[in-house]
Amino acid sequence: MERAIIKIHGIVQGVGFRPFIHRLVKDYGLRGFIQNTSSGVTLELEGERAVLERFVGELPRRAPRLALIERVETAYSAQLSHFPDFEIRGSCTEALRKTLISPDAAVCADCRRELFDPRDRRYRYPFINCTNCGPRFTIIRDIPYDRAKTSMQKFPMCPDCEREYHDIENRRYHAQPDCCPVCGPRLRYLDAAGRERAGDAIALAQKTLLGGGVVAVKGLGGMHLACRCDDAAAVRRLRQRKQRDERPFALMCRDLDAARALCELSAAEEAVLDSPQKPIVLLKKREPGLWYLSENGDLGLMLPYTPLHILLMDERFPALVMTSANLSDQPIIKDDADALKKLSGVADGFLLHDREIQTRCDDSLCWVLDGAEYFARRSRGYVPFPLEMARTLPPILACGAEQKASFCLSRGSHVFPSQHIGDLKNMDSYEHYAAQIRHFERLFDVVPALLVHDKHPDYLSTLYAAERGAAEKIPALAVQHHHAHLAACMADNGLDQKLIGLVWDGVGYGEDGTSWGGECLIGDYHGFTRFGSIRPIPLVGGDRAVKELERIAFALLRESGCETGEIPAAEAYEKLLTAKLSCPLSSGMGRLFDGVAAILGLKRRASYEGQGAVLLEAAATEAEGEYSVVLAGAPLRFDWREMIRELVRERDAGIPVGEIAGRFHNTLLRVALALCRAAREQTGLNDVALSGGSFQNMILMRRLPPLLEQAGFRVWKHRRVSCNDEGLSLGQLMIAQAKMEETENDVSGSAFKTD
Ligand code: ZN
Ligand code: ZN
Ligand code: FE
Asked: Pick from 62, 92, 122: which residue ends a domain?
C-alpha cells in the first residue's frame, strides 16, 4: 500500500469534477479525500501503487467536458493515513476566492436528448443545462461561484431540482444554473410595439421569421438580430435598419449538414464548429454568391449553442442570420428594456426571457488554421479561461489599445484576457470597458500594482490608465503598440528570447510620433529595435484617408510618379500634399492594402476599417510571379513605388484584377521573406513571430509560414489570443512584467515596486 498525493491544476471546479473523481475512485476501490485548493483540487488516495498509477493515467482521459486540466502533479509516499473511505472535504474560503471561473458552454448531448424527450420533465424547456453545459461567465455576479451570486438567484429550486442538485450520482450535482419549467426562467414573445403576446413564444418568433421579419433573440451574452438568410430582401431590410454598412453577417446553422450546404468544411473546421465553445468559424463559401450576406469569399457560420436556439431553428430553418444586436459601434445589447428601446424600429418581434445577462460576451470568431482556432475575436466560450504562463507574475492590468479593445489581468501564473469589448470610440463602450475591468478584478481577486497602456496619447484606454493611476496612486507604463504585438505573440507561444517580429497592421503610434504598421522588429519583452518597415505613405487628409481609400490611392500613385487623373479630387489632394498640410505619414501595412484596393477599383470608400484588405484578399486569384521588391535604408524599408508602377501598368494593359491582387500578395510574401533574411544576417536570429491585424489575411497566413520555414526559419503565430489589437494587451502585460523585474534588480529604481 502507498499514498498518492495528486494535485490537479486548471478549471476543475464548478464543472462536475468532484463527482467524477468520486465515481472514478469507487471504480478503482481507492480510499482518501478530495479538496478544492487555490489552483485546482488536491486528492489523497491510498491503495496499491500499480492501481494508483493506472488511476492517475486514466484521470485526464475521462475528465468532464468542461474541465481544463493544465497540469497533474503526483507524489507517492509510504506513510499511510489509513483513510476509512472516500470523502469530499469542504473547501476553505481562501481557496474559493482564488478559483477559476468556467466560460459558458454550449448545450451538451445529454441535455439535448432530454430537450426532445416527451417523457422528460424538461421536454422542450429552453433553459435546460447541467454540470457539463450551460451559462457560467455571463450569469456570474460575484465569487464564490454559487447560485446566490448569479442571475439564477431569483429562481429558488423546486424540490425535484433540489434533489438532483444534492445527488452526487446525478449529472446536475452542484450545477448552479440548474432549473426546470417549474422553477426556472420563462420565455416570452413581444411584438414590434413591445406588447407581450399570448401563446408559444418560440412559435410566435418563428412565424415572424418565416414572414421575412427581424426578431431580437436574447442569447447567452447578449441579443442577436435574426432573420431568414435565404430571403435577400429580408437581409437587406435588416441591413438598412441596423445601418450596418457592408460588414458580413454571421449565420447560425441548424447542424453540420446545413453548414456543409453553404461552405466547404474540413474535418478540423467541423470539430471547431461543433466544439463546446461553438465559435463563429469563418469558412469558404461553397460557391461564389450570397453577396447580400457577405461581400467576400467567406461566410461566418456557427451552430446553435443554447436550447433556445435549437428550439427556434428546429426543422423550419436550416440557417438564420444571427448578427449581434448593437447599434453604431455600441456594446451588444443585453437587457430587455434596453432592447425594447434601442431596437424599436429595427426588430419586428422580441424573443426574451427573465434570466438576466449579467455580463456581455459576444460570439467568438475564428478561422481554423493548422487544425485549431486562429482567433479574430476570443470571447464567448473561451473567456474567462486563463492563459497559463511559465512564470509567476505580479498583479498587472494591461489596458489594451482602442480598436478591438481588450484588457488582461495577471494573477500568479495566470493571465486573464477579457472578452470582446469593441472599439473604444463612444461613452457606452468606454463605460462597458471600465466596468468589465472592475468586474474581472473582483472575480479574480486582483488588485493591480501596475497599469500598462498604449503609447498613443489619445486612446481612451490610455486615458483610463492615466485617470485610474492618478486616483489610486498606481504607477502606469506606456508601451509601443507594435512592441506589444510582438510580445503578445511571444507570450502566446510561451517564448522568452530575442527574435524577429513581423508586425503588420493598420495603425499604431510609433516611437517617432508617426503612425507605424509595416514593421519588422527585433526584440523581446525588455525592448526592441526597428529593423525594417515600409516606405511611409502620406495620408492625405489624415484620419479621413482610413475610410476614403482613394486618398491613399492618390498618394501611392503620385509618389510613384503615376498618372493621378483617375482620382476625382486629385487636384485638391495635390494641394494638400505639396503644402504638406494635414498629410501625416503612415507606414501601416493596412494602408498599403487600402490604397492598392482603391487603385484596382475594388473600393473607393470603405465602410469599415480594413475593408480594402478584405476585398483585395477576396479578389486575389492564384497568380504566378510578383512585382519588384526594393528594400533600402535604415530601418530597411520596402519601397513600394516600383511595385505600384508595375501594378498600374498591368491594370492599364487589361490584366484581370484578381491576377494583379494575387501578385500583390506574392510580392508581400517576398517582402516578408527578404526582411527576415536581412534581419537574420545581421543578428543571427532564426525565430520569427507573426503578429498584427494584417495576419488575419489568410493568403498570408497559409503561405507565409511554409515559405519562411523553407528558408530555415522557425515561425510562431498566434494560437490563444488574436493577432489583431484584441490580443495586444497580453504583450503589454509581459513587457510591464519585464520592466518591473528590471526595476527590482536595479537598487536605485523603485518606480514599479510592489510589496
Ligand atoms: Zn448538459
Ligand atoms: Zn425545478
Ligand atoms: Fe495593431
From this structure: 92
- Regarding whether 532 and 489 lie in a shared domain, the answer is no
Range of the domain at 677: 499-718
Q: Which ligand minimizes its atom distance to the CA of 516?
A: 3
Q: Is 488 domain-assigned?
A: yes
- Calculate mean pLDDT across residues 266-293: 96
Q: How far is CA 153 from CA 108, 156, 364, 745, in A?
A: 23, 7, 27, 49
Residues 514 and 445 in one domain: no
Residues 627 and 738 in one domain: no
Q: What average pLDDT is seen over the chain?
A: 94
If asked whether residues 63 and 14 sit together in one domain, one would say: yes
- Give the total number of structural domains in the chain: 4
Residues 322 and 471 both lie in one domain = no
Q: How far is the CA of 131 from the centre of ligand 2 (A)?
A: 15
Find the CATH number of the domain harbouring 11: 3.30.70.100
Cα(721) to ligand 3 centroid in Å equals 13
Cα 322 to middle of ligand 1, angstroms = 23
- Quick check: 541 and 625 in contact, CB under 8 A? no
Distance 151 CA to ligand 1 centre (A): 18
Q: 657 and 691: one domain?
A: yes
Ligand nearest to the CA of 130: 1
The answer to whether position 377 is within a domain reads no
Q: How far is the CA of 134 from the centre of ligand 2 (A)?
A: 15
Q: Strand, helix or coil at 496?
A: coil
Query: Residue 481 C-alpha to ligand 3 middle, in angstroms?
Result: 6
At 593-621, the pLDDT tens digits run 999 999 999 999 999 889 999 999 999 99
Domain boundary among 366, 394, 421: 366
- In this predicted model, what pLDDT tens digit does every residue of 313-346 receive, in sequence order? 998 999 999 999 988 789 999 999 999 999 999 9
Tell me which of 145-149, 186-190, 224-228 is least confident: 145-149
- Sequential DSSP letters for 362-402: PPPEEEEETTEEEEEE--TTTTTPPEEEEEEE--EEE---S
pLDDT at 40 (0 to 100): 80
The pTM of the full predicted model, rounded to 2 decimals, is: 0.94
Answer yes or no: is pLDDT of 747 > 60: no
- Determine the distance separating the centroid of ligand 1 and the alpha carbon of 303, expressed in angstroms: 16
Do the domain assignments include residue 723? no
Q: Within 10 Å of residue 712's Cβ, how many Cβ atoms?
A: 10
| DSSP symbols for 404-460 | TB--EEEEEEEEEE----B---SHHHHHHHHHHHHHHHHHTT---SEEEEES-TT-H
Lowest mean pLDDT across 538-552, 600-614, 733-747: 733-747
Gap from CA of 134 to ligand 1 centroid (Å): 7
Question: Distance (Å, rounded) from C-alpha 278 to C-alpha 622?
Answer: 32
Angle of helix 570-578 relative to helix 549-559, nearest 10 degrees, comes to 60
Evaluate whether residue 754 is within a structural domain: no
Beta bridge partners of 45: 4, 32
Q: Distance between terminal CA atoms of the chain? A: 45
